[in-house]
Specification:
By secondary structure, this protein is an alpha+beta fold. It has two domains: 218 residues, no CATH class; 243 residues, Neuraminidase. It has six helices and 28 strands. β19 and β20 form a beta hairpin. α2 runs antiparallel to α3. The protein is elongated, with a radius of gyration of 29 Å. InterPro entries: Sialidase_sf (IPR036278), WD40/YVTN_repeat-like_dom_sf (IPR015943). Keywords: Membrane, Transmembrane, Transmembrane helix.
């Protein structure tokens, strides 16, 4: 009998040892993409933070040397233990160049972790620009300043979650909690928070953690937003020193545009097939010519994009709520590689199309004007057609006055310029004091803009796709009495 008990005990111990070994091996094998059994033992989010999760991930899979957090959502128990979570990471190399994205989703009840990495080709919903405020090490320190357990004790939400989204933009006047110069955030009742006692948002992009209740942070009425001091305020979307006011980004086969330095983005409803063929036609990687799209200064205004080989005009007259595809009946007998579109108001606009130069046939270009918001276009000739003077730029001050720039040839540093004061019916050469331009400007290729402010016309010339020098000339009467005003470096488009 004693022997049987002894053997039974050995069998039980063997089974326990086997299970422990199985669990150990299971928790130490590399992650494969997709679902796998995995156990994350009692994990205190405030104490262990994001660095603890990073350590777990790096133990089981190869990740980029630098990780940034795009989004995080995690369920929290009343004692601060992390339950289900979903985290999306962007990976960068040591030169801060984007490599790829990763996603980890954990089901704490079923002990299942879903990993998506290189094979899944995850795409972020934001431009892939290195942002110090999203570094996992920085956000780890900010998260640990939130007294999660102590704060939960003062609330009566039905459930609790912690959320983080890159470049969160609270509504102006919405309650937030500022940390100021303290070591950690204060605790308070929900009524105290809603009163705005601890701060109110200025309506700009911020580094925000949210303690909330419900299945969705965006829909939750029970929400506390913690406003962290950014690692680098200039890296926040909306910063005028680092972001173009009007810009676009392409991610996968989706394109979005912004008119507020990247704080908000509007979807452009172009199909994957059309965007793919457009990018293939331009051969600029994931970039498009900067003048081939237009964004109104005013919310609710016109958005326009020239796409496809033909090309076709994709047009919205109400800020992207409704769209029209407008086929342009134009044949220049060669691929239309040069495309410029703009509007001077909600009904008057201009469209210039041109080809590259080739031996024997030269080049071709044409101007089109609209007075119905872009639905129909009337064609007009441009000077020096069928020569080597290819189209580089055009801009209109209003529906009458415009400036045109053409290529001057390989040996010339500056473009040929023409001005019209009769809606493009005729063009006269425009002479500028180019010899007055400072030595920091090695060349100019196109006209960027013509404006009128405080009794002066201001003409801005610029460079090509990846260079950002600008030169400003001023005149009182649009004659040849122009003066060189200044040169400066502008913010350029971030590929992505």
């Amino acid at each position: 009998m004693k022997k049987q008990v002894k053997y039974l005990g050995l069998i039980v111990l063997s089974i326990i040892a086997f299970l422990l070994l199985f669990k150990f091996v299971n928790n130490n094998k590399p992650f494969s993409e997709g679902d796998q059994k995995f156990t994350i033992r009692k994990y205190n989010l405030q104490q262990q933070g994001f660095k603890g999760l990073e350590e777990i991930f790096r133990t089981h899979t190869e990740l980029s040397s630098i990780l940034l957090i795009d989004t995080f959502d995690g369920d929290i128990s009343k004692d601060g233990t992390l339950g289900n979570f979903n985290i999306v990471l962007s990976g960068y190399n040591n030169s801060k160049e984007y490599l790829q994205s990763y996603r980890f989703i954990y089901n704490s009840k079923k002990k299942i972790l879903n990993y998506a990495g290189p094979k899944s080709n995850i795409k972020s919903t934001l431009p892939q620009i290195y942002n110090e405020n999203n570094e996992i090490s920085f956000l780890d320190t900010q998260l640990k300043m939130i007294p999660i357990k102590e704060q939960i004790e003062k609330l009566d939400f039905p459930s609790y979650s912690i959320g983080y989204n890159s470049n969160t933009k609270p509504l102006e006047g919405e309650p937030i909690v500022n940390i100021n110069n303290n070591d950690k955030f204060p605790t308070f009742t929900f009524d105290e928070y809603k009163s705005g006692k601890y701060g109110k948002s200025n309506g700009h992009t911020s580094v925000i953690f949210s303690l909330y209740s419900g299945s969705s942070l965006a829909l939750s009425e029970n929400k506390i937003m913690y406003n962290c001091i950014p690692a680098n305020s200039e890296s926040l979307s909306g910063n005028k020193n680092n972001f173009m006011k009007k810009d676009y980004y392409i991610n996968g086969y989706k394109i979005k545009i912004t008119r507020d330095y990247g704080e908000t983005w509007i979807d452009i409803p172009i199909s994957e097939e059309n965007l793919s063929s457009t990018l293939e036609f331009y051969r600029l990687g994931i970039e498009i010519p900067p003048d081939s799209y237009y964004i109104s200064d005013n919310p609710g205004g016109i958005i326009a994009l020239l796409y496809g080989e033909s090309p076709t005009l994709l047009l919205s007259k109400n800020d992207g709520n409704n769209w029209n595809n407008i086929k342009l009946d134009i044949n220049l007998e060669k691929p239309i590689t040069r495309r410029i579109i703009g509007f001077t108001d909600e009904i008057n606009g201009y469209l210039a199309l041109g080809t590259d130069w080739s031996m024997g046939s030269g080049e071709a270009k044409i101007l089109c004007l609209t007075d119905d918001g872009g639905l129909t276009w009337n064609q007009k000739e441009l000077p020096l057609s069928n020569t080597s003077s290819t189209l580089t730029g055009i801009t209109f001050l209003d529906n009458t006055i415009g400036v045109l720039s053409l290529d001057s040839g390989m040996d010339e540093k500056f473009p040929k310029l023409f001005i019209s004061n009769n809606k493009g019916d005729s063009w006269n050469e425009l002479n500028l004091p180019l010899d007055k331009i400072t030595e920091d400007v090695s060349y100019l290729s196109k006209v960027d803009s013509l404006t009128y402010e405080n009794g002066m016309y201001k003409l801005v010339l610029g460079q090509d796709l990846n260079n950002n020098k600008k030169v400003v000339f001023e005149s009182k009467d649009l004659s040849n009495d122009w003066i060189f005003k200044e040169s400066y470096e502008a913010v350029i488009h971030y590929p992505g």
